[in-house]
Amino acid sequence: MQRLYTLLLYLSLPLVLARLLWRSIRVPEYRLRIAERFGCFPSLNIESSLWIHSVSVGETQAAEPLVRQLIEQYPELPLMITTTTPTGSDRVRKLFGDKVYHVYFPYDLPFAIHGFLYRTKPRLLVMMETELWPNLLAICDKEGIPTILANARLSEHSASGYARFDFFTREIFEHIGLVAAQAPADAEHFLGLGVPSDRVRVTGSIKFDIRLPASLHEQAEVMRRQWGDRPVWVAASTHEGEDEQILQAHRQILKHQPTALLVLVPRHPERFDRVAALCRKEDFLLIRRSEGHGCTQNTSVFLGDTMGELTLFLAAADVAFVGGSLMPVGGHNVLEPAALGVPVVFGPHMFNFAAISRMLLAEKAAAEVAGVEGLAAIVTRWLGDASERASFGQNGKCVVEANRGALNRLYALIQDRL
Q1: Which of 73, 76, 178, 323 has the most CB atoms in a 10 Å sphere around its CB?
Q2: Which value, in Å, is the radius of gyration of the alpha carbons in the chain?
Q3: Domain limits at 366?
């Protein structure tokens, strides 16, 4: 099966490259550094590096406290971070500068992986969340490179999908050196798919160990003054098909809160222009963050079309909706607004954050809605009720504080293998 999988990868290469070039039409950076994706780049001249694969922006953000702790405790240890997206690459550069090496993650082809390993010589690979690549895991296992699947999550839906190919997935999962699972349910799913029990630990989610910049609240106050004295809600990390629903909900909210401002932050930068056009088509008076203009009292939508500022927008808001949840995407990180004391609302599709979302719901730190009507109702209610809003926000802070510690547990596992 491994050979068949590899053959299919080779056969699909033209489609993979075509998709890369297609994406580069909207994001030109996708056509740059393509050779890196095949393991071809000048040797980094680093021996025994620690390799962290963080996929894109969200995983890079989650890995930030871990990376900073490693930089502080092991200043001589070369750190290499790989991502698959240009936005992830840009986030690595902005967060860590020249303190780490960045290379694009190689395609799961044997020659690409061997070339990558030859040029980087890692002593340990830490993969964030659910990055499972059969050839990479098999080659690392064969060459004695320890692997850790960190902050690992595996929903029941995903586990069922893997289970349909049990004869192949068990072989893949047996090559994982260690799984540091977010929750007991995640651990059970990994065990059920063939990871030996002595290689599974429940460490919790390092996203609870979020570190907020010391100056964040001062920056948020400045941002809030730019928005004006009005109720504000953020729709964070929205996906295709959600923006229309968000705007419908906002139209209903404006009937009860005429001065309300929607801060709309699409998940992917290539969608910024399309979402702006959608807002104008729906006759909303729009200001784009990238234009640098302040809001007027007539501005109804503020488009967050810059990278790395979502935390600031959340800190300055009264209510936060977390996207990827009205559409079957699986949701995004709900802990950042919770840590800021901002009440959280999300849709029914939170399977990537199932345990965390259930925890917030149980502690009355968040609300779940089925669609436009429910979203408009809860946002309207919270914007008009400061007491209830504060209660939900405080409960969210308490949930985050009570579950900190995953970072130290994960760090200890990494130390044991360095």
Answers
A1: 323
A2: 22
A3: 216-401
